[in-house]
Amino acid sequence: PHPVSATRSGSSSSSSSSSGFVCAYVFFREASVKQVDVPTLTGAFGILPAHVPTLQVLRPGVVTVFNDDGSSAKYFVSSGSVTVNADSSVQLLAEEAVPLDQLDVAAAKANLEKAQSELVGAADEAARAEVQVSIEANEAIVKALE
Q1: Does domain 104-145 have CATH number 1.20.5.440?
Q2: pLDDT tens digits, one per residue of 22-35
Q3: Whole-model pTM?
């Protein structure tokens, strides 16, 4: 997993816009895309040019980038935020992001089982919260890969 930020910009009248992920590993940088689908705490939604401005908190799940050529790319994000600005620019800031095809469902299931067993023995609220984050992330990885 890698810390990541993404930006997308374009005029509100265009049928596509540019998108960029900026981090130690660059996934997209000012690439022209049709749509970006994001998982948020209030539900998943698609971002198209001229989308209404919004600020949302990302939940663990899959960000899908639909390219102008019809292809798509999927990334698992652990958490973060997505901002859609009035000028149709988009900033996606993810705590961690990794191409979906680089994840291992067996490892995610093993991590999920381990975290679930650790939850029972969590010493305090802070430890319980940390384990719960691991559970939610691994559940989302398993769901995305199955």
Answers
A1: yes
A2: 444 456 666 677 89
A3: 0.75
